[in-house]
Amino acid sequence: MAKQTTSTNRIKFLAYIVLIILVNIAGMTLFARLDLTENKMYSLSDVSKTVVKTLSEPLTIHVFFTKNLPAPHNSTERYLHDLLEEYAIYASSNFNYRFYDVNPNGAGSGAGAEETQRLAETYGINPVQIQAIENDEIKFQRAYMGLVIVHGDLVEKIPAITMTDGLEYKLTTAMQKLNNKISALLRVKDKIQVRLIQSSSLDQIAPYMGLKDLPRLPSEVESLVKKLNGRMYDRLVFERVDPSVDPGLNSEIETQHIMSLKWPELDSGKVAAGTGAIGILIRHSDKTISIPLLQVIQIPIIGTQYQLSELSAIETAINDQVEAMIDINEDIGYLADHGTPGLYGPSPMAPMPRQSPDSLETFRSLAEKNYTVREVKLKDGVIPDSFNALVIAGPKEPFSDYALFQIDQYLMKGKNLAIFYDTIQESAAPMQGMFQQPTGQYVPVNTGLEKLLEHYGATVQPSIVMDENCFKQQVSQQMGGGERSLYFAPMIKNENISKDFPFMKGIRGLVAYKISPVTVDAEKIKANGLQSSVLFRSSEKSWEMRDHINLNPMMISPPSPGSDKASRNLAMMISGEFPSYFAGKPIPEKPIEQKDDKTDDTDESPTDSDQTTKAPETDNQPVTKPEIDLSQIKGDKKIIEKGRPGKIILVGSSEMLKDIILDEEGRSPNAVWVMNVLDYLNNRENTAVMRSKEQRLNPLTDAGPMVKTAIKVFNTIGLSILVILSGLVVYFRRSARKRKIQAMFA
After folding, report:
1. Residue 496 contacts residue 686 (beta carbons within 8 Å)
2. Cβ distance 376 to 336 under 8 Å?
3. Is the CB of residue 385 less than 8 Å from the CB of residue 617?
4. Cβ neighbours for 504, distance < 8 A, ≥ 6 positions apart
5. CA-CA distance, 697 to 507, in Å (whole number)?
6. In the predicted structure, residue 29 carries a pLDDT above the cut 70
7. Of 2, 112, 330, 455, which has the fewest CB atoms closer than 10 Å, so is most exposed?
8. What whole-number distance in Å separates Cα of residue 387 and Cα of residue 15?
C-alpha cells in the first residue's frame, strides 16, 4: 500500500510539472492583460491598433536606451518595452522593434558597443543629462533615451523619452505621419527645389565674424539634401545661387526676408565694403518657405555675435518645411481676417517684442503637429470645402451679410465650427506676463456674428464670469507676499466638466480666462431639431460682471452671500441639421472694397467715365463700345436652407487659445482639451481619447465642512475606537472557543 501511494504521488508530481510547462508554452503564444485604470492608461487605444494593423510597408522602431538607469528612468524603459510588445501583438508582420544598449562612455555590454553608439548618432539620437541620487548625493549622468521610427525610406525620431506621459500618442501619431508622408511624396509630380542663397562676398568677412566654416557650407548643405533626397523618393533638387554674381536676386531676397548683411571697409582696407545674403528657400508649385541659416545674438558687454546653424538643425528644418509644403496632414481652417489674432505673431523684423499677449503661435504649433492650418479670409473669397472644421477666434471687426452667408452655408454643408467668441474687448492694452492684470476699461464687441448664433439658438452674454474658485496668483514680497485671487480666471473642477462625450472624459480640470457665459434658447433649439450640450461650467460660487467692467484684481471683491451666485455655462456644443439664417432671403451681395487711392479733383464726372468704355478715335468717327449689362446674366446658385448634420462648439473667450494659457508641449489640460476639440470636429475622436487618457491631473472632489469634520474625527478618534472594537471581537471569539473546548472534554 505504501509503495502504491508513493508511485501515485510521483505520477501527480510529474503531471504537475508537465502542466506547468504547457501553461508557460501557452503563455508565450497567448496574451491577455487586465487594465483596471479608469482611462485604460496601460492598454492600446483603438486608433493605435488600427495604425499598426494597416501598415503597408515594413516599419521598424530602433530604441537606443542605456541600461541600469536610476529611478524613475528605469521604469520608463520597462514601460516602453511593454508598450512596444503590445503594439507587436496587434500589428501585422510589417511591424518590428529592437532595443540597443548604448553606453555614453563608449563601453558596452557587447563587442559592437561602439558601432551601436555610432548608429544612434547617425539617426540623430544623442545622450541627455539625467539626475541620479546615490549615497544621499545628487549626481548627473549622461544616458541615451531615444528612438527612431524607420518606415520605408523615411525616418522619424523621438530624441528624448524622459517620461511615459503621452508616449503612446507620440508613437502612434509619428507612425501615422510617416504613412501619410509616403502617400504625399508619391503624389508629388514636380521636384521640390531647395535653393541655397549664399553670397560669395561673405567669405571675406567670415573669419572676422567667427564663421570659419562658412565657405564649406554649400558643399555640406548639398550633401545633406542628397541624403534627404534618398529618404524622400527622389523628390528634392538642390541649387546654389550667388547674389554677388546675380544682382537680380535682390528683389527675391527682400521679398522672402532672407538675412542680408552690410559692412564698411574693414581691417585697414583689407576687406572692402560690401553686402551679402544667406538663407535657404524651399519652393514647390506656388509655395515658398524660407529657412534662416545665420543667427544674430546680442550678448551684454561682449556685443554682437554671429552663429551658423548646425547641420542637424538645418536637416530638421528642411524636413519639417517639406512636410508642411506637401500637406501630409489633414487641413483645418482658421479665420484670418475680421480682426482675429494672427497665427504667426509679430514679425521678427518688427521693433516690438517677439511675444505678444494676443499671440496664437502656441496654438498653431500644436495644431500643425496633426493638421495643416489654412488661413481663410472671407474678404477675399468663399470658405473652401477642403477641411471639416473652421476655427473663429475673437473677431473684432463687423461681418457683412456676405461674410455671414459664407459661414452659414459652410455649416449647411455638414461642416463644423469652433467659435471662441469675445463679447467685450479692452479699450487699453493689457500688461505683459502670465495671467496679465488688465487695468483698462472694457467695451462691447458687436460684429454681427451674434445674430447668426442667436438664429441657431445660442448667445454669448456681454459680461465676464467671476468665480471664487479661481487661479491664485503669488504676490511678490515687495508687494506684501501671499496670494491674490484672480476672480476672472475661474478654475473649472472635474464635477463641472461634462463626461457625456469620450473626448471630454479624460479632462478633469481647466483654467478659463476672461470668459463670458454662453446661454441657449431651449425652445428654439427644440424647434430647429438641434441638440445642445454643456461642455464645462463655472462653480456655484460664480457671478457676472457686466456694464462697467474693470478687471483690476485690487478692485474686485466677491458680492454679498445673498447676491446672484450660480453656476454659469462657459462652453456649449450644438449639433444637428441647422436651419439656414438666409432661408427665404436673397443671396447677399459681396461688398465692394474701397480703394485708398484718391482721385484728382477735376470737373470730369467719374460716374460718366464708368458708364461707357471708349475705343480709340479714328479720323473718320469715334467708336463707342456699349457696356454689357452683366445683371442680365442670371446664375443658378441656390441657398442651402437645411443643412446636413454639423456641430458648433461655442466658447465665450478667445483667451483659451492664446499663449498665456496653452503650453508649448501640449501636456496641460487646457492644451489637451483644445486639441481634443479639433480632433472631435474632424471626426478623429479616437485620437482625442488616446491623447487625453494619460492625463495625470486627478483632483479630489471638494467636500463640505461637515464631511471634513467627520473625516478629521474619524482619523483622530475613530481609528482608535475601531482597533479597540476589533480587539474585543477577537477576545470574545477566543473566549467562546475556549469554553467550547472545555465543554467537549468535561
Report:
1. no
2. yes
3. no
4. 497, 498, 535, 673, 676
5. 8
6. no
7. 2
8. 64
Q: What is the mean pLDDT of residues 496-511?
A: 90
Termini Cα distance of the chain: 39
Residues in the chain, how many?
746
d(CA 403, CA 378): 6
DSSP state at residue 541: T
Write out the three cell numbers for 480: 506684501
Q: Is 427 within 8 Å of 441 (Cβ atoms)?
A: yes
Q: Chain centroid to CA 409: how far?
A: 28
The answer for residues whose C-beta is within 8 angstroms of residue 575's C-beta and 6 or more apart is 530, 531, 533, 645, 646, 647, 648
- Cα–Cα dist 659/362, whole Å: 6
Q: What distance in Å separates the CA atoms of residue 536 and residue 518, rounded to the nearest whole number?
A: 10
Tell me whether the omega of the peptide bond preceding residue 72 falls within 30 degrees of 0, making it cis. Answer: yes
Helix, strand or coil for residue 414? coil
Could you tell me how far CA 578 lies from the centroid of its own chain?
29
Are the beta carbons of 378 and 335 closer than 8 angstroms?
yes
Question: What does residue 586 show for φ and ψ, rounded to 5 degrees?
Answer: -70, 155
Q: Are strands 624-625 and 613-614 parallel, antiparallel or unpaired?
A: antiparallel
Residue indicated by cell numbers 531647395: 194
Q: Is the pLDDT of residue 624 over 60?
A: no
Check pLDDT > 60 for residue 466: yes
